[in-house]
Amino acid sequence: MVDLSNFLRGGAAAKPDSALPRHVAIVMDGNGRWAKKRFMPRIFGHKFGMEALVRVIDDCHRRGIQYLTVYAFSSENWKRPDEEVSGLMNLVLVGVSKYLARLADKGVRIHVAGDRSKVSERVCQAWHHAETTTAGNTGLELTVAFNYGGRWDIVQACKRAIADGLAPEALSEEALSKYMALGYAPDPDLFIRTGGEVRISNFLLWQLAYAELHFTDCLWPDFDEAELDKAIAVFASRDRRFGGVKPSPSTQEASA
Ligand code: FPP
Which residues bind substrate (predicted)? Predict the structure, then answer.
């Protein structure tokens, strides 16, 4: 059994490398139910969801996690009531003006992944501002998936590869990966979904091929450091074989 107590408290120097995910991807679900339990409108839950996100960015950063990708608005979320959609768009503007300086000071680099063609000019400008302000940072790489869908991502990658003149014989998994929206990041090691649903919901379909999946009933605004530690401990206990087999102790001794 790996002793995780030190690095879970933030003692990154002592962490066993394979026990800490390099890239964590999160579906932040349950904001609406969290608000409903408090007899408040759904956007109230999203506002507290934003606070939870800022806390989790800090927690990941302190643990030495290098990449964090969060699903903030899916290509399907346009089907929500107009009031909720405009509330979420407004939350981008509020979030960037309230938290960007703090995140930038910590060295966080922000990327936004998704189809910007349907997103308003004001929201695009806010994301562009967040990306350019943090472009030189070398700390945690935060990707906000916004108007993002996994199928959209695969199609846009194919389109860009074709437009680049990539010949069919040059097309490979590695080549296409570079055209995916997260072409700059390794695939997620750990996928977390809060809110009790057990599905991927068109998030990072290509990139999650070998991620360890962790589902929790915790509603996103309640997600805290203890929940993150639980997810990391579950990850550390998994036996990742990537389709291979675990070498038996005698094989390991012989090759040592
Ligand atoms: C899903 O919960 C959550 C979303 C669609 C939005 C997630 C947004 C945030 C956490 C705030 C941060 C936002 C930005 C723009 C960076 P749900 O509403 O489906 O919850 P429910 O299943 O309880 O209804």
Answer: 30-34, 42, 46, 74-76, 78, 80, 193, 199-201
